[in-house]
Amino acid sequence: MSIAVSIVEDDPGVRSSLVKLINSSPGYRCVSQHSSAENALDEIPKLKPDVTLMDINLPGINGVECVRKLKPLLPRTQVIMLTVYQNTDHIFKALAAGATGYLLKQTPPAELLAAIRDVNAGGSPMSGHIARKIVQSFQESAAEAAETTEALSPREAEVLGLLAKGFLYKEIADQMKISYATVHTHIRHVYEKLHVRSRTEAVAKHLGQGRPRHESTAS
Predict the structure, then answer these.
(1) Is the pTM of this model over 0.70?
(2) In CATH, what is the architecture of 151-207?
(3) SS3 call for 47
């Protein structure tokens, strides 16, 4: 069975070329083409394509917001961003909105077709340059977290390590043989040095995770 593809692209020339590529390639068929997010949001949910190619810079609602609105309606439709934007802000916003792949418009036709098949089979295709940007971003975040935690004193680092293991404040006091008040003092200093405001943020930074999980009320 051929892969059903919808295209959301405001440039008529680019849109026409994509339609021609899809329809002339065995195993693929273009079921719709849209020049705006508004039109795509009206029509694509009725068609339920397997894959949607989505531009970011659209008139009116942009491509990232279009993905955010489409995904709850079409959880099984995979979205590949096909754009000229290479900055990490656009990349992460698109992936957070629900896109599964991210390709640059200069991607060769054969690679684009392979990416459509890959994303339909459960993969997350990305241009090599984009993948490197994502890796670099995570590496920079981890390095920043490591540099920050190095500013802690040995006792503060020990307290943070116990926090990361899930110990409560009283358990930390017992473990380190210090008073409950001293634990609070160490934790206050940890928060100040890590520039965080909660236990979860402190632990997340310690682990180099970048984004905190749901805040725990245990203390």
Answers:
(1) no
(2) Orthogonal Bundle (1.10)
(3) helix
